[in-house]
Amino acid sequence: MFRTHALPDIPIILAGTKLDIIPPELIESTNDRAKEMAISQGSSGYFLTSSKTNTNVEKLVAALLELLLARAKHEKLNAVSLLEQ
Fold first, then answer.
1. For residue 50, which of 15, 18, 14, 13 has the smallest C-alpha distance?
2. For residues 6 and 66, what is the distance between their CA atoms, to the nearest angstrom?
3. Which helix (H) or strand (E) holds 39?
4. pLDDT at residue 71 in the model
5. DSSP 8
6. What does DSSP assign to residue 43?
7. Bridge-based pairing state of the strands 45-48 and 13-16
8. How many domains does the chain have?
9. Distance between CA 9 and CA 29 in Å, rounded?
């Protein structure tokens, strides 16, 4: 579903939004279902977020940047090893 137009090595993080309007008694079950969906779709991670309360927004962005930087570093290392041959 998520990888229709994304290459396999591009990180995709599923973000559940509107945490601030989910009734507290439903957060755990919502979180569990979303994690299962993220895993089944090959997502690199999952965060339940709220931009209104700024809950997990920075964590989500930091995680995505970390994944992208690791990917870029890996590609750079591969390019250097090709040049050294």
1. 18
2. 18
3. helix 24-40
4. 87
5. T
6. -
7. parallel
8. 1
9. 29
Q: Token pair 């690199």 is at which residue?
A: 44
Q: Which domain holds residue 61?
A: 2-84
| Residue with tokens 């989500």, as numbered in its chain | 60
Residue 18, sorted as left (phi over 0), alpha (psi -120 to 50) or beta, turns out to be left
Token look-up 């290392």 returns 77
Q: Which residue has the tokens 């997502």?
A: 43
Are the C-beta atoms of residues 15 and 44 closer than 8 Å to each other?
Answer: no
pLDDT band of 80, cuts 50, 70, 90: low
The number of angstroms, rounded, from the C-alpha of 17 to the middle of its chain's C-alpha atoms is 13
**pLDDT tens-digit series, residues 17-61:** 999 999 999 999 999 999 999 889 888 889 999 999 999 999 999
Distance of CA 31 to the CA centre of its chain: 14
Q: What is the pLDDT of residue 28?
A: 94
